[in-house]
Amino acid sequence: MSRTVFCQRLNKEAEGLDFQLYPGDLGKRIYDNISKEAWAAWQHKQTMLINEKKLNMMNTEHRQLLEQEMIAYLFEGAEVKVDGYTPPTAD
Hints:
Layout: E1 4-7, E2 12-15, H1 24-33, H2 36-53, H3 60-75
Antiparallel strand pairs: 1-2
Helix pairs in contact: 2-3
């Protein structure tokens, strides 16, 4: 059975994550307050950020940067700015 959370990113009730995907207190906060839909959107943005900025996940500073972007995106309603990426426009 799926669980429902009030997603802070989408600002609505939505299907919650099946388990905690991120470690520590932040992971618990994500599990309790972020939906599968919002997490999937973040994963897509994260991949674009890693590729665009050529981030190395073995580098502590790079991981911290990514975590700050994740917090801003999931909890503060910020959009991820990826240099050189233009979102597709609807016709």
